[in-house]
Amino acid sequence: MTDKPIIAVTMGDPAGIGPEVIVKALADPAIKKAARPLILGDWGVLQRTRERLRGTPPLICWQPGQRLLPLLDDPRAFTVCPLSALSAKESRPGGASKACGHAAFSYIRVAAKLALSNVADAIATAPISKHSLIDAGHDYPGHTELLAELSRTPECRMMLIGAKLRVVPVTGHIPYSKVARSLSRANIETTVELTHRSLKDFFAIQRPRIAVAALNPHGGEQGLFGDEEIHLIGPAVEAARRRGFGSFGPFPADSLFHQAARGDYDAVVCMYHDQGLIPLKLHHFYGGVALTLGPPFVRTSVDHGTAYDIAGKGKADESSMREAILLAARLARSAQTRKRSERSRSGSKAMTASHETASK
């Protein structure tokens, strides 16, 4: 990796706000300084989006046979890898469709290939529509599960990140009625482990402090309001701690997030999606970022959906997309530094072993 990492930026659902937030985010000079984005998407959709907006940077269409790096290093323009060619009718902003689902899936699939082959140093994704994916025959509840399959990673989780909070749900996009029966000691402990490793590897926190939220009101009140804390969550926290992971709890969720936001903990493992995302978005509605834990590459994402109701109207806020690209670049550089350090240590050990062998 050179000084500036290559970030594969997927356009998301063509009919959502993804194209708009990408084009707006690229206008921030901080993006060019930190990264070399390669936008995987639809050339026509992106150009039509640029025409509706002012002050957006020019785009370059990467054609087969062209060398990529000189395009990425253009000081003014950003490079697009065209993976779909939807008509204006097919990509009309404002609603889910089979065509958009096919297109969005192709962007993610190619991004994963680029990351796995080390062409891209990280991935940053714009929002997709689950309905569009399913209509197109791709039955995934979200990016996390799709990327887990594409990277053949058995366990993945989603960390939501803001300036004051990091939250990691144990369960994902499932109905609230299924949450309790979807919890187990194993998946809670795995979530703590993934959170611990990510805090160390990505954020250089050597001794992570991970708070684990209770499921029930007041932490279950010793079984009066539910016993998941006694039979599942508590034992999982203890097991994780015995393995060397800095886990604490379970704590009642109504006060835990206040404590985490003031700095008492480095992250909160929560039991379900809204338990963690409501406080996260209360503090960081604009600028929050999602980070996928588990895959062998860095993947960040916006923390919002397709927002069909404002798509194509120029009203979308690009803060989360901008922060997702910048975080992807920062974590990619951190990962590369860590790999160099590991190779250096391995080389030193090999040299020491060779010297000792030669001395015998």
Question: Could you provide a short overview of the structure?
Answer:
The protein is of the alpha/beta class. The protein has 13 helices and 12 strands.
Q: In the CATH classification, which architecture of the largest domain applies?
A: 3-Layer(aba) Sandwich
Shape: globular
The fold-level CATH name of the largest domain is Isopropylmalate Dehydrogenase
| Extended strand count | 12
Tell me roughly what share of residues is in helical segments.
40-55%
**pLDDT averaged over residues:** 92
Coarse structural class:
alpha/beta
CATH-defined superfamily of the largest domain: Isopropylmalate Dehydrogenase
Count of structural domains: 2
Q: What is the top-level CATH class of the largest domain? A: Alpha Beta
**Biggest sheet statistics:** 12 strands, mixed
Q: What is the ordering of alpha helices and beta strands?
A: EHHEHEHEHEHHEEHHEHEHEHEEH
β-strand percent reads 15-25%
What assembly state would you assign to the polypeptide chains in this entry? Answer: single chain
Radius of gyration: 22 Å
For the largest sheet, list the strands in their spatial order. 3-4-2-1-5-12-11-6-7-10-8-9
Determine the N-to-C terminus distance.
40 Å
Low-confidence stretches: none
Number of helices: 13
List the helices and strands and how they pair.
Layout: E1 6-10, H1 18-26, H2 29-34, E2 36-42, H3 43-52, E3 59-61, H4 68-72, E4 78-84, H5 98-116, E5 122-125, H6 130-135, H7 143-150, E6 157-161, E7 166-169, H8 179-182, H9 185-203, E8 210-213, H10 228-242, E9 247-251, H11 253-261, E10 267-270, H12 273-284, E11 289-293, E12 298-302, H13 319-359
Helix pairs in contact: 1-13, 5-7, 9-10
